[in-house]
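During the second half of the funding period, the structural biology subgroup turned its attention to how the target accommodates small molecules. The most pressing case was nicotinamide-adenine-dinucleotide, which had performed well in the primary screen but for which no bound structure existed. We therefore specified the complex as follows and requested a full 3D prediction, including the ligand pose.
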Amino acid sequence: MNSIEANKCMIHFNASCYTALNQHLNSRNFSKIFILVDENTHEHCLPLFLENLETTSTIEIVEIESGEINKNIETCSGVWNTLSELDADRKSLLINIGGGVITDLGGFVACTFKRGIAYVNVPTTLLSMVDASVGGKTGVDLGHLKNQIGVISNPDLVLIDTQYLNTLPQNQMRSGLAEMLKHGLISDLNYWNKFQDLAKLSLNDLDALIYESVLIKKHVVEIDPFENGLRKSLNFGHTLGHAIESYFLSNPNKTTLLHGEAIVIGMILASYISTELTGFPKQTTLDIKRLFVDYYGKVTINQEDLQPIIELLKFDKKNTHGNINFVLLESIGNPKIDCLVDDAI
Ligand code: NAD
């Protein structure tokens, strides 16, 4: 698979990842290399990564606890302190090996430590391969509010080695698939159609689909790196999805929803709203709902949950001037951004 360039950041795939990384390390002469992992990527991904790394620089492993609950400024403080204690300087490199929590948080730590050090993303979940590690969005949550603090700044390299997926739990695979389905819905009917039999998708099919998803994301973030227009379409399903994710995260009586699971609910709801407001065909909304419900199952949201979820919508980052902006669809592949939606709908 050919490497992809997105906003001057090179994205390499499978075997070519390590050649590119080793060349980069050789040419840049970093003073020290820090590798950020969580306990799962430490166990399952770091050994393969280290096997392929060729460097004489000192390597330090920094581990944080896994989970969205730890994607916060306190964890950043811990990592900043560790970097400082281990004498990281402006010529140090941070390599983030993990899912979206590690690449978002590690990217933010790197962009802010000593006003910015170089970093590399090695995404190890499906979601972080096709979405979180590409496009330069970094950041952390503020309390239960998702991604409120952060900066947009690209890594030196993104290294997508799908071997890491061999140890990824099935529910995490399904969560990542949600963002790939989103890529189809917002930009490409042909790509969407490749997912019509989700239960039959195998790991072998995935490499090509991941590559296509990264190409879709590249296309969007290159046209609109700072989310003034087209990039907002990547938030399809995320307005209600994030509010539902935050609500479930903050409510001890609810099961924790994975990011992709919440986004699936948000995409069903955004399709329904599209049918109400843009003329998006009702049958297509029903087909989307059937596909998602068959594969992801149902999550119960009760009447008493609705008002707190609507309240959370006001923290959505796409909002401006007090209005809640939705991404809707006119047809599959044709998103409509900045749609104002009445609370009643
Ligand atoms: P995650 O980072 O929490 O990873 C999921 C779990 O899988 C964790 O327990 C992790 O330890 C484990 N894991 C990771 N790789 C593994 C492997 N190869 N084998 C076994 N276990 C492994 O979750 P995620 O779904 O990758 O990312 C979600 C985050 O991404 C959210 O915080 C979301 O806001 C963010 N995100 C960011 C962007 C962006 O553009 N920056 C886009 C989409 C999502």
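Two results from this model are relevant to the next phase. The mean pLDDT is 94. Residues 19 and 186 are 34 Å apart (CA to CA).
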